[in-house]
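Action item from last week, closing it out:
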Amino acid sequence: MTHEVTNQPPPITGTNAWRSDPLLMQAGERLSETVRKELDAFGRFVRTGEALDLARLANTETPQLKTHDRYGRRADFVEYHPAYHALMRRSAANGLHSSIWETGEAESGMRHQARAARFYLTAQLECGHLCPLTMTSAALAALMADSNMFRRWAPRVATRKYDHANKPLAQKAGITIGMGMTEKQGGTDVRANTTRAERVEGSIYRLTGHKWFLSAPMSDAFLVLAQVEAGLSCFLVPRLLEDGRHNGLQFQRLKDKLGNRSNASSEVELHGTMGEMVGEPGAGIRTIMDMVTLTRLDCALGSAGIMRASLAEAVHHARYRQVFGKPLFGQPLMQRVLADMALDVAAATALSLRLARAFDEAADSRAEAAFARVMTPVVKYWVCKLAPAITYEAMECLGGNGYVEEAPMARHYREAPVNAIWEGSGNVMALDVLRVLGRNASLFNDVLGLIGKDLGDKGNATLEVLAAAARVCESDEGSARILTEQLALAAAAAELRRMGAGRVADAFIETRLAGQWRGTYGMLDARHDASAIIDVLYPEAS
């Protein structure tokens, strides 16, 4: 034997991602006992060796496109590893694709918050398979533009069953819905789309064109944007026709993505593809925006989950690794780095869950409706932009052990950028904030009122800064990112204060709202008890 393995941390398996997250548990105190028990069980599952193996396999044994069968006929089929299907079955059973549309009493009045907690925990395990689940849940919001269509499709979604059989819709136990919006000449500018739709009969159209990104190509149906005489319109397109024949969707190739590798994204050509119009002719963007709003919440929750999982690995490693004669966790510089990151992860988590609460309460509160409208792009912008920096710094805490594929850190790092890009990059989010500000400034004032109330007496200076930043934006569009980030920091601080996060809230407010310019993590000074901050947010093995 050449060596004995020593000074390595034990696996993080066997712990509980729910019980080891005091902030999440506190946010979930208002949930029913039934839901909390489910979260406890799921928190155990995402830290099991079985679950971690499923996540690993789903990302190493990636989807494969079969354009033709052995006889030369078009197949247009994507084959996934069984690990991917196992993750999809578990998440569908947990209602990640349907629970906000259900009517059960256990989640009444808190459906978005209950789902947000489940989504956040699932993101700590594996994010790629969440893409089709997000789109399926959000697609029903777009279908509400047509009440008859919603009544036909919602029961098919709300079965909590995952059926990956390649069969027509009527034969499926459960379905998923994807989307195809962007084209290679336009990207974010969907008004530049060239795909055309010609009316066949009633609300049925025939589509011809292409999509540069068709997400989750084995979905049972897709929301697709195409041009009609009245302008860009939205269509629901089944992948297979009722008789089982292909519906003219010809997959060209799968995207070779940096991350999100368990989830297939494809380029597709549409050849006489049949679709049903959703909403009014020419109202495609307005119809699809309700879907986009829900997906942006999931982008933030997913990024927060990735950050939590990455930092939990780093803290776990530091507690057990000996360096220079004492635990790495005991080294002052490492404590400051971990605590500094922990503040941002806590703030991102609190802010994402706060947005979910606004979604639940918007129907009964003008202020909460304003928060949901103004803060959705703000939260998506800031939380998603944190993820790459946090996952990188957490990886560095593990050193070389974090930079190899055996650890989940490499997967988290590759996954980290996608949510900032999907459903609108940073500039798109900042422009959306300006759009709200320009069209209805009273919404902005309502949000400032909520932030000021939760910040308390110390919030006056922050509100003045936000108001000044908004005034600058009226004549300087290029300053939109400044306003967006300041809104995110202020709202995150307010939510931490409202939750009674004590020294965590104090440290975040002092370093983020009133602190010096920061370029990297580890910038806490000795006034803040770094060790205590970590212990509060990342208690030892639980």
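Closing note: Residues 433 and 478 are 12 Å apart (CA to CA).
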